[in-house]
Amino acid sequence: MAADAMDTALGLLGHLPEGSLVIIKDSLAASGSFLLHHYISRLLAAPKAEKQTPTSIDVRTEKSTAFDGRVGKVPCKVCLVAFDQKFSHFANVGRKQGVNLVANAEEGALRFVDGISKPFEWGGVLPRSTPCGAVETSESLESFLEGGLQELSITGEPQSVRSASPSAPQGVVKQIETSLGAVSDLSDQSEAEAKQNKRAPLADGGLAIVFDDLGGPEAACQGSAHEVLALLNWCRTLRSQNGERASVVALVHGNDMPDGEKGLASIMEHSADLILQVEPLSTGAAADIHGQLLITQRTNKWMDHLRKGIGGFEATKLPRQQKFQFRLLETGVKLLHIGGSKGGA
Amino acid sequence: MENVVRSFKDKALENDYFNVVIVRDSAEVLGGPQVCQHISQELLSVVKKERAQARGTVLLALERAPEEYSHHLNQSSGSETEGLEPLQVLDCFSDPLGWQTSPEPDSSLGRTPKDETNDVSSVRARNQSQRAAEVGSSGQEDASRRMSSALGKLQRGGYSKVHFENDESLEGLKVGIQNAGEALLKDAVEGGRLALVIDSMSTLLQYCATSKVLAFLEWLRWSGRISTVLTLLHADLHDARTNAAFERLASTVVDVQAPPLLDERGSADGRIHVRHKTKKGKVRHEREQFWLETSGVRFGPIERTASVAELVAEKSTSMQSGRAPPSAKTATTPEVPFNLELSEAEKQSRARVVLPYEHQGDGHEVKIYDGRPALSGVQARGKRDGRIGYESGDESTVAAHNDKLKNGEVIESGQGHILYMRDSDEEPPDSDEDPDDDLDI
């Protein structure tokens, strides 16, 4: 399966539709983090030469070449909220996939909100219960994790907002706000310009907020899923400079609760627009196939996106559900049609 | 679907009937939100044409951003009338827990709430120019803002905001609905009512306890201002008790189901099963299939002949609802090219057969051949031939039976025959011993 066809299947047609929620649901048997890396690198990838003035002829050429998925792809600002891996991990994987995350962070296209180095700062769980002791714990952890904090400095000043909020996701909200505030600081001069261009949505690729593990905030707010839901909702109401609402990509572990209770993943599934479910092979391990991927479109968002967005896609009707097998490669991932040829095309 | 749309035109009676439409789906089934949206568009057009008792619609956006609904609903109503939409959207989506509007004071960590609000709002002002106008930065504005947030209503971006934190009795939501209702019914005649669309009851249930939500619905019923409530419920997220509570409350339940696996035509994206309870208590069932299309949902009748699984499902639902099953014949017999039915004559002769372990003589002694010489010694004759016949109430042998057949006589004994053939003469008689000889039914 060609790389562009794969991106179409994954909903990566240019930027993500505004306000959309992509849920990557994995399990212990098959990790879905490879999709996160794929999304991050594709959203940040910026074929700058493709930008064209929209004359009628150019529009036609856009239509004809639209299927290779490169036209209309505009750099998207990404805010990566990490609860599972450190920035160095993402940078390493990104480098293999051909995207320099460090350079992107310096340019301001990528913002990194660190949820693991200073867990009690974003969480605010301990301050709520034992205010005095918590500060000490937090400080000792701070010094313990100093190595990690050094790395963070590439995203600008270290996040010094100590959460005064009673709930954990609220702390995350503050961190994201501070982080994104820095984004608009960088481009204050162009803000008036951006206002003028509000009618042209392709001028800016919009804003995507990527959560590498929703289990972090869920655990921090003691398993109350509604706070995590509220966090994601809040993220989707943020607006990028072109006035579009931000889209959210989040990884959630789909293992069911022991007592049959519906976990966070089931709740998230209902509010998601696109669900990517990563499953192990039912026949067990295989040498060249690492698992299967079920892609479900729950809403019409992508169809609407195609309808009003990029020409040339109109003819395609995206199937509601697609199933692929995937193979993990050093440089990324390859999707294969089930029962397809050996090695896939 | 017709019944659902017709029910929107029903009048709610004073303190009595009000129309609750629940669309039920689960994570495995696609199309629940789309079906709900389709129905809400129908509702909106009925309200707009003033065919319903409701004169305005209030939409609670819980699961999706309010912008998405206004976009869709405007699209559906088209440009036939340029007048004001009789629709108010309450934003329960962007800040359901009141994080932005009411920061709690926490001096132990050295930041006053005022600092924080200013910080947040200034970030927001830089970041989101649209919202900047509404978010104040001076202390006075701050105080008034917090007051308005206590009422659960904060105008931002054209949508009234509602949040649920520390709001056990959903007062903020009630106030929000009342305010929206007042705005909608300003010009309406006295006694005008509202239609309420809740885009996901399940999300509301995430924020509040089930009992509170049910009490809220009761409040809606007795408020006398609401004629119709339309909502979507994700059945798989709740336990059976919660689902049952909502089912009881509903006058119409639209179950969204996956298409059957072995659908030969295979084109439909799913099916709906509508159970509609009329005002008088009659229950109507309706089944349709639907196709999800880019422009919306298209409904159509289920055309092909019903399969066994469906009929069984239908039978079970009809048994649950106390309706008589359609007919025993259609319910049990699949359509096959050969005849499984018995003719009348066959049925009669079948009915005449007396099984060997049944009581045979009315008041006579029960005689079941067990391989041993009969006490009366009469049956021994047949046994010698290696062929054993038995006719109840009368000593007759196979030979006699064959004779009768040869003569073309019709056996009119009133009862059927069962002929037992022994495998071979070498077998000792005991091998034929009936294991059920002590069975006496």
TrEMBL record, chain A:
User: Its annotated pathway?
Assistant: tRNA modification; 5-methoxycarbonylmethyl-2-thiouridine-tRNA biosynthesis
Task: Cite a single Pfam family from the UniProt record.
Answer: ELP6
Gene3D superfamilies according to UniProt = P-loop containing nucleotide triphosphate hydrolases
GO biological processes: tRNA wobble uridine modification
- One GO cellular component from the entry? elongator holoenzyme complex
InterPro entries in the record, alphabetically?
ELP6, P-loop_NTPase
Q: Which domain of life is it from?
A: Eukaryota
Task: Check the record and name the PANTHER family matching this protein.
Answer: ELONGATOR COMPLEX PROTEIN 6
Q: Which family does it belong to?
A: Belongs to the ELP6 family.
- Protein's name in the database: Elongator complex protein 6
From TrEMBL, chain B:
A GO cellular component entry from the record = cytosol
A Pfam family matched by this chain, by name? DUF7504
Biased amino acid composition, Polar residues: 119-141
Region (Disordered) residue spans = 100-152, 406-441
Q: Which residues form a coiled coil?
A: none
Q: Which UniProt keywords apply?
A: Cytoplasm, Nucleus, tRNA processing
For bias type Acidic residues, the affected ranges are 424-441
Q: What is its main location?
A: cytoplasm
User: Where found?
Assistant: Cytoplasm; Nucleus
Please give the InterPro entries that the UniProt record associates with this protein: DUF7504, Elp5
GO BP terms: tRNA modification; tRNA wobble uridine modification
Query: Which pathway or pathways does this protein act in?
Result: tRNA modification; 5-methoxycarbonylmethyl-2-thiouridine-tRNA biosynthesis
Which PANTHER family does the UniProt entry name for this protein? Answer: ELONGATOR COMPLEX PROTEIN 5 (PTHR15641:SF1)
Q: What does the similarity note say? A: Belongs to the ELP5 family.
| Name of the protein in its database record | Elongator complex protein 5
What organism is this sequence from?
Klebsormidium nitens (Green alga)
